[in-house]
């Protein structure tokens, strides 16, 4: 389908910069083997079969720069479908820079961000949605985001879109065929069936669009804010949650993963606490956060934890606060703090209040109950992440919306009995937008936009 030929050979460091045991430099293009061979001392790489690894040295003139392992992948059985060489060297930035210089001098060109994956796409290795999933996979930081990206990369989402598209293509061509026989008044495309198909596709699109709410949560986390009166215990709670998270992350043996500030992971969902600067230092401060500032915090979040001191609040006061705080009706979780100091009578009164969690932030009591309630607020339960296709990409949402509109136009065109060529044009427009998701329809701008978001070396 894609006819693409590249004449130049690109090179980039595929591993993260900084000191590691090993770094990998990757080359792709017609000269990849020859460029490495030009500075390699060992077997003649040009004579070796694909998918083999060779030990040797890289030399700049007489000077040995490093001992390396060279992996060979002959096109089309490589990531980009071109000739690819991966050079594994020792992971010093100095060595990496020296080798890169050498390969550039030999005629390779520095790869742009995402250029390896772009070539893979242009050479038909996978479609656009799958290519985008590669970027998601690299940046996935929870079990769920990994699962969804992996599924998309393996083509789950693409298959769904392509199936819909193929059925529409069939009808579009039937209607266009009718145009050729305009004189004879024949009908190849059954209008009732077409209507059914369109409604069916629209239903699926609606489901996909709904899944984005969750997809976005999975990919980007839930911006969460803790609000409440001074001394309610907000900073105590935040520190408790973040310290537990820190302990969990550093408990995993052998991991060097950085602990992400102000973020906790519960059942695969990342809760990102926003605007925590004022809350993090535990020094006693009586900071009356202005109303305006509170509203601003709320506007950036999609989940609110309203924390209050159970020993100084009545249920009526709580109710009034909640209504006053949340004009936009965001998901809000009321959390009663300091149960360690509350009388049994007070606990019983608040026990009657629905959707309320009681904790002691200072003593860490009922943190599990709090976490459970947070997950429930995100409402993950209504979607089955294993079975259902989940849209995570804003670009796909946009294309799906435009497809939906074009299908609406097609339906009303059919209702009004407008001429076939106009109906055909509406269907074509739907096909165009649907095709942009998987890349059956692309423009240079679109491709640039997507691939420049990748990291260099991918
Ligand atoms: P903030 O102003 O909302 O951030 O409140 P702080 O976290 O600074 O807490 C205010 C005071 O309440 C501090 O003296 C805390 O030690 C205390 N505090 C916080 N959580 C609890 C709790 O669960 N039980 C008790 N007894 N005291 C708490």
Task: Write up what this structure looks like.
The chain is α/β, with parallel strands linked by helices and 458 residues long. The protein folds into two domains: 10-126, Gyrase A, domain 2 (2-Layer Sandwich), CATH 3.30.1360.120; 128-439, P-loop containing nucleotide triphosphate hydrolases (Rossmann fold, 3-Layer(aba) Sandwich), CATH 3.40.50.300. Helix content is 47%, strand content 16%. It is built from 16 helices and 13 strands. It has helices at 32-37, 93-105, 115-122, 128-139, 143-153, 156-180, 191-220, 234-251, 277-280, 291-299, 315-325, 344-351, 367-378, 394-416, 420-438, 444-451; strands at 10-13, 22-28, 40-41, 52-60, 63-73, 84-90, 109-110, 222-227, 263-266, 269-273, 303-309, 332-337, 356-358. A seven-stranded mixed β-sheet has the order 3-4-5-6-2-1-7. Strand 1 (10-13) and strand 2 form a beta hairpin. It is flat, with a radius of gyration of 29 Å. The two termini are 23 Å apart. The site of guanosine-5'-diphosphate has 17 residues, from helix 8. It is an enzyme of class 3 (hydrolase).
What's the count of strands?
13
Rounded mean pLDDT score: 85
Indicate the CATH architecture of the largest domain: 3-Layer(aba) Sandwich
Give the proportion of residues in helices: 40-55%
Number of helices: 16
Gyration radius over CA: 29 Å
So what's the CATH class of the largest domain?
Answer: Alpha Beta
Structural class: alpha/beta
Enzyme class: hydrolase
Keywords: Cytoplasm, GTP-binding, Hydrolase, Magnesium, Metal-binding, Nucleotide-binding, Potassium, tRNA processing
Binding site for Mg(2+): 235, 256
Function: Exhibits a very high intrinsic GTPase hydrolysis rate. Involved in the addition of a carboxymethylaminomethyl (cmnm) group at the wobble position (U34) of certain tRNAs, forming tRNA-cmnm(5)s(2)U34.
């Amino acid at each position: 389908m894609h006819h693409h030929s590249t004449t130049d050979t690109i090179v980039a460091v595929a591993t993260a910069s900084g000191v590691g045991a090993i770094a990998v430099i990757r080359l792709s293009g017609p000269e990849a083997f020859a460029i490495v061979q030009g500075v390699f001392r060992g077997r003649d790489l040009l004579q070796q079969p694909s998918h083999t690894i060779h030990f040797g040295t890289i030399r700049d003139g007489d000077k040995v720069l490093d001992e390396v392992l060279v992996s060979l992948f002959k096109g089309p059985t490589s990531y980009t479908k071109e000739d690819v060489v991966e050079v594994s060297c020792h992971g010093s930035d100095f060595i990496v820079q020296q080798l890169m210089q050498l390969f550039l001098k030999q005629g390779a060109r520095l790869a742009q961000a995402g250029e390896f994956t772009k070539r893979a796409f242009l050479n038909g290795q996978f479609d656009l949605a799958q290519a985008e999933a590669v970027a998601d996979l690299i940046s996935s930081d929870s079990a769920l985001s990994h699962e969804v990206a992996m599924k998309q990369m393996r083509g789950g989402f693409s298959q769904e879109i392509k199936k819909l598209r193929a059925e529409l293509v069939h009808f579009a061509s039937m209607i266009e065929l009718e145009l050729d026989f305009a004189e004879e008044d024949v009908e190849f495309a059954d209008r009732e069936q077409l209507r059914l198909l369109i409604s069916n596709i629209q239903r699926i699109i609606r489901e996909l669009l709904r899944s984005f709410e969750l997809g976005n949560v999975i990919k980007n986390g839930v911006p969460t804010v803790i609000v409440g009166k001074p001394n309610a215990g907000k900073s105590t709670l935040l520190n408790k949650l973040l310290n537990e998270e820190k302990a969990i992350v550093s408990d995993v043996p052998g991991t060097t993963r950085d602990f992400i500030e102000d973020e906790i992971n519960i059942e695969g969902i990342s809760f990102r606490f926003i605007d925590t600067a004022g809350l993090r230092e535990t020094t006693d401060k009586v900071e009356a956060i202005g109303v305006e500032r509170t509203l601003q915090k709320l506007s950036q979040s999609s989940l609110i934890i309203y924390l209050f001191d159970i020993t100084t609040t009545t249920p009526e006061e709580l109710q009034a606060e909640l209504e006053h705080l949340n004009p936009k009706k965001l998901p809000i979780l009321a959390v009663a703090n300091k149960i360690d100091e509350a009388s049994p009578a007070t606990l019983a009164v608040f026990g009657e209040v629905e959707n309320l969690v009681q904790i002691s932030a200072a003593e860490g009591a009922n943190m599990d109950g709090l976490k459970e309630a947070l997950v429930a607020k995100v409402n993950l339960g209504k979607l089955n992440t294993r079975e259902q296709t989940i849209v995570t990409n804003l670009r796909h949402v946009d294309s799906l919306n435009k497809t939906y509109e074009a299908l609406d136009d097609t339906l009303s065109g059919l209702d009004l009995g407008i001429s076939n060529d106009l109906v055909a044009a509406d269907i074509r427009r739907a096909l165009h937008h649907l095709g942009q998701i998987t890349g059956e329809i692309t423009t240079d701008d679109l491709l640039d936009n997507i691939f420049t978001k990748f990291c260099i070396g991918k």
